Amino acid sequence: xxxxxxxxxxxxxxxxxxxxxxxxxxxxxxxxxxxxxxxxxxxxxxxxxxxxxxxxxxxxxxxxxxxxxxxxxxxxxxxxxxxxxxxxxxxxxxxxxxxxxxxxxxxxxxxxxxxxxxxxxxxxxxxxxxxxxxxxxxxxxxxxxxxxxxxxx
Length: 153
What we know:
By secondary structure, the chain is α/β, with parallel strands linked by helices. The chain has four helices and twelve strands; from the N terminus they run ββββββββββββαααα.
């Protein structure tokens, strides 16, 4: 769309939507079916996973794993992109298995290494599970964090 900037050596997959004002720094990778909403800024060398939905005005400094919605500041996990997955004919069973992966990764209180080991050992093998594990293991910048509301106590 209008005023999108794709810097040097970026790789943009198929069926990606870059909304008005998106800026990709150098050597960014955006996988298939990702949606990057308006005025989002992606730091150089970041990797945006497949079927991901980024909120408008996102400042992306970490890798965003596949199948998720990411929002807030700092950018963090905001759930699985279930609407986008349904639009691409993912069945409810597959979506639920993807949600199980991200519940372990972001909601069980484990660090990323522990969560990946648990996911690999305890959750059933699937193309999506293996894609998430491979994405995290290949991340050079680290992945976004889960979201926790600040407690004012």
